[in-house]
Amino acid sequence: MAPFAPITQNPATGAWIPVGGFQLDNGCARLGGVAVGGALPACNFHYTQYDNLIETENRYQLYGEVNADLSDKTSLHVEAFYSETDVPDWNTSPSYLALQTSTSATNPAVSTLTPALLAGYFVPLSNPGLQAYIAANPGLIPASATAVHFPGVRYRPLSFGGNPAFDNGPSEGTRHYKAYRVSGGLKGEFSNGIGWDVALTYGQEQGVRTGYDTIVSRFQMALRGYGALNNDTNGCTAAETANFTTNAGNTAIGCYYFNPFSNAVAKNAVSGETNSAFSSGLANNPELVRWFFQQSSTKATQRQFVVDAVLNGTLPIELKGGAVGWAAGVQARRNSYEADFDPLSNQLATPCIDTPFNGSTGCTSKNGAFMFLGVSKPQDLDGDIYAVFTEFNAPFSDNFSVQLAARYEDYGRNGGTTFNPKLAAKWQVTDWLALRGSTGTTFRGPPLTQLSNNSVTALSFIAGSFRAIDLFGNANLEPETATTYSAGAIVEAGNFKGSIDYWRFDFDNPIIAEPSASIVSKMFPGGAATNCGAAAYAGLQSRFTFQGACSTATIARVRTQYVNGPAIKTSGVDVLADYKWPDVLGGDMRFGASATYTIEYKIDAFTVEGLVVESAFDAAGKLNYQLAATSLPQLKGSLFAEYTRGPHNLRWTINYVDSYDDQRASILAANPVNGAVNTNGAKIDKYITHEIDYRVFLPWDTTLTASIDNVFDEDPPFARLDLNYDPFTASALGRTYKIGLKKSF
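Now predict its structure.
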């Protein structure tokens, strides 16, 4: 339930002012919420209860290939792949937070609200829900009040009772993805022994996503009694609206009220807790909700066309281990990206809060008409990438060889160029021991979507509630590069095989999104607004959209972008081991292990708008919540035992993720028994799961597989996150079963 403030009319000035501070709808506890006090009270609502851990998906895949010898030295290869995934019911919260609020075009109190009152929504005394609430709670609202005001930022229109437009359940969207790829190539050998390989590949991926959000202007009009029913051509027209007084509403001519109070909600849609104050006559009409709760849809299409041509052979240079081998080639890639949006999600069609109400397009902040979701411009992007590469293999002896490679790529005027050499060597010291090492540079070019100035909207938990994070592209991005080093040993002794490798990557100009939480912390240290208006913080303050004065309580949106971020240095060790025990009950046993230990993941200081928002730190072994790195346990590994007999194979695997620290300060209250700070979740516990996989080769080139994941149905370790666990390292699905059948032709 949202907080509200009563409003009275001052006869001398006609101004609307708040009276008595903010109050919380007293239906909060009855519907299963947790009331939080303070200057701006709130009723905590756990939106994740409306989400699915995994959505219902329908998947279809088709693959085929043709191979043919056209001559003694020429062969043809053609392959085609098609995939389609349909998610018919993508569930989410009944409605999003009100990060945009009504303007003076639909809210008569906007121009006269005092600065102390957060921007929000106006509910006149004529609203039947308000009248019933006042009657049921005498004295709670001053008799002189003629309206109440719901502040934005921490308000959402629909919560505990679900969404009437979706049978009082979660809001439901859809996801639909299609992809296909066709590749064909010829390879052969010239009469002089030089091999050649030419290939053409075309691929396309398309995704269509739909969801729903509240149209600000329509919602405000519905609070005032000027709502209409969805698709009702005889609904509340503009002329009828203009003829109404503030306290008038007439459903006889198609105008309807939306009741924002708890007396409109019968029960908690998840827990079933009933509301004794509910009145069926005050319940909201689902068609009215559908009128202001409208669909947002996006269709994104990516295409790529690739041409590869490679030559290979040997040089007339004979070493002790043989001739020097070589390969050289060229590649051209054509990438394209298109994004189309429905009119409400298209910034060109609906730039302003009031565009659906009065057609206005001249607003300063062009975040569209929805309460939460932003808008984007249609995109039609394309870019060409050209590359040349070469590689040499020099066998200096039978037990020592060196590989040298280099690649040059040109991403065009927006992506820059990059040159990357690599040197690798292997020394077979004895029959059972080999040493290897490599050094070189690698790269990752910026994708077209990150070079565009368009944006996507994400969530971030700021000052007690979620706010919108708008992530923009950046036309000035350069390729991300890294210098890599590795050194290791390989052991093959009898039935045992093993390897150990040390690796190190030094990243320069990593392509990364600016850390929104760190931007907020820098602008508001400890939640204080002391930096607001300071000249040194002007650039950082410009990244925020506020509903009122500069403060954490009024943050509606934070603007971030992709950048070439601070340098990263990471290193670690990989270990593999495998032992085969033959002739066990007529079959073979194998035992093995693999592990990766991250020694360090050091990130330099992160600067935004000339200010250090994130000091240098080592992310290894940390949760890194809302920082430049993601969750990074230092140790991950697995053990397995496998038995094979004839066509049958049975494998048992134990997966291990080590514990790691949540470096945030505790947000939990002190223990009332001993006064100690509750540290539950400060360390995310280790996570161990078991899985069984069975495979059998059947007649007619058919393979049957069956698996049990998380055999002992282990719960994920607790973490202080939205889902109460860390989805980057653990799963809440519990024990799952899979079965598959594969037929080769």
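The chain has eight helices and 36 strands.
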